[in-house]
Amino acid sequence: MITFADLELVTAISASGSLSEAARKLRVTTAALSMRLRKLEVALGLKLASRDSRRLSLTEDGERLAEEGKRLLQSLEELSESMIGDDQQLQGVLRLAAPFGFGRLRLAPMLARFAKLHPKLKIELDLKETPWPDRNNCDAVIHIGSISDSSWTAQVLASNERWLCASPTYLQKHGMPDTPNDIASHRCICIRENDEHVTFWHLHKKAQTQSIRVIPAMTTNDGGVARRWAESDLGLVLRSQWDVAESVANGTLMRVLPDWQFDTAPILLLIPTQKNRSRKVQMLSSFLSASFKSPIPDSI
């Protein structure tokens, strides 16, 4: 008979892609997990996984068991939540994924407050360069930028404008751009994220729309690094408002072409469609929505 532990085993392997990562999630040794997998295969008379020197992948039967297992485990979790009175604390595990910079600077302080409200809830935050769409095992994912995927429900937490900025020293030396066309003569710092085409900057002003191709003087996949380069007088940077607003406020950066609007990159809370009914996810959604609207600084 397939047990609850068997379903947890196969779904963990499906989400991880390796025995070692699955073992860490289930808090057992790799050898113990491998033995459990072999016993399950013998009991079912099926080959559930294929192994090579680098990774482990589930067979068709293994994937089918993992998919059914995820559905059953989710139903059991929802049943457990539904049996808890409204006056009681959230319990269980809440798994989230978010981009590195935003997760550290903005999301982590919010989750600290949420954790204090629900001390019985275990929160797991996984910070990745690209947390979506490779985190299907999560209850929710923070994503910056638009998506189109019917298997996820997207809630806009903040519009998140993009601001073009540079340091006062850089602008004093190289001059302040007066029009979008002036950008081409400046050093530009570009950020690779979400596989976007980083050398095209799109601007809007009333009925005017203009696209500028820039030649990057410096490129990185870390937005925080790009901001610090700009603060070090190395060029113009196009960065999310949430990351540069403080630098603009304290004078280490200045907005460039503030009358022009660049393409926005909305901050989204992505929830797998099958987890929309989860009480803990619904409460997280309400909490984050209120937190993003609050003018109170995100301090722990």
TrEMBL record:
Gene3D superfamilies: 3.40.190.290, Winged helix-like DNA-binding domain superfamily/Winged helix DNA-binding domain
HTH lysR-type domain residues: 2-59
Keyword field: DNA-binding, Transcription, Transcription regulation
Family named by the database record: Belongs to the LysR transcriptional regulatory family.
Protein name: LysR family transcriptional regulator
Organism: Pseudomonas boreofloridensis
Species lineage: Bacteria, Pseudomonadati, Pseudomonadota, Gammaproteobacteria, Pseudomonadales
